[in-house]
Amino acid sequence: MQVVNRLVIVSGMAAAALLSPSVAPPLASAAPCADVQVVFARGTFEAPGVGGVGQAFVDSLRSKIGDKSMDVYPVNYPASLDFATAADGVIDARNKVQDVATTCPDTEIVLGGFSQGAAVAGYITADAVPSGFTLPQGITGPMPSDVADHVAAVALFGKPSNGFLQTINTAAPPITVGSLYSGKTLDLCAPADPICSPGGGDGAAHNSYPLNGMTDEAATFAAQHVPAGGGETTH
Q1: How many whole angstroms from its chain centre is CA 93?
Q2: Phi and psi for 100 in degrees, rounded to 5?
Q3: Less crowded by CB within 10 Å, the N or C end of the chain?
Q4: Which residues pair with 187 in a beta bridge?
């Protein structure tokens, strides 16, 4: 049941994702702004970095954007089964996206995640706090709407299905990509992946994304929104 254990934490993240404490965004880096900024959240138990799926996606995207410069930011969070720290990824990804949008307004942001990381990425695109959830004092809501103008594409791999979430915690809100992001989001699920596919029953399929062509498919999608050779980006 290792594949289930990997995403048990999603139930804790589900409510926490939009109930993230307000944290000041990090200070702007002195480094020049890249043409493309990838913000990617790895899956549960993957070592710090972007993880295997994330690296396959990043490598493919880099090969498709011509001479554009690209920076990669691995979302900083435990990616573990520690429910108390799961929302760290939502906070960190949110802050990074907002920081880039503010300090590097011409940079095109590509947001992505795998498994638990796909939940992280998906939740920060939400339009509103899910019905039934009240934000206590000092807690922020969704990202400002103008941030969406800076996000060129969103790539999600093995995002937990609502059915999967309900088997873990019936109180967990669904992961719903917001209306400002839905048109530029590619949500990929291997057919046999039990985490994202209701009929899936092959645990190995959850780790198949670097091998089944889907990371390359997502990179092609993102590159179409960040055309090689310059020009306006299609949002």
Answers
A1: 8
A2: -65, -40
A3: N
A4: 156
| Distance between CA atoms of residues 56 and 199, nearest Å | 26
Question: Which two three-digit tokens encode residue 199?
Answer: 């009929």
**Low-confidence stretches of the chain (pLDDT beneath 70):** 1-31, 82-86, 132-140, 168-172, 227-235
Active site residue 22: no
The pTM for the full model equals 0.83
Which SS3 state, helix, strand or coil, does residue 113 take? strand
Q: Which of 11, 92, 161, 206 is catalytic?
A: 206
Q: List pLDDT tens digits, range 149-160.
A: 999 999 999 999
Looking from the CA of 79 toward its CB, the CA atoms found within 13 Å total 23
Please confirm, yes or no, whether 206 is among the known catalytic residues: yes
- What span, in angstroms and rounded, lies between the C-alpha atoms of 23 and 222? 29
Q: Is 136:209 a contact under the CB 8 Å cutoff?
A: no
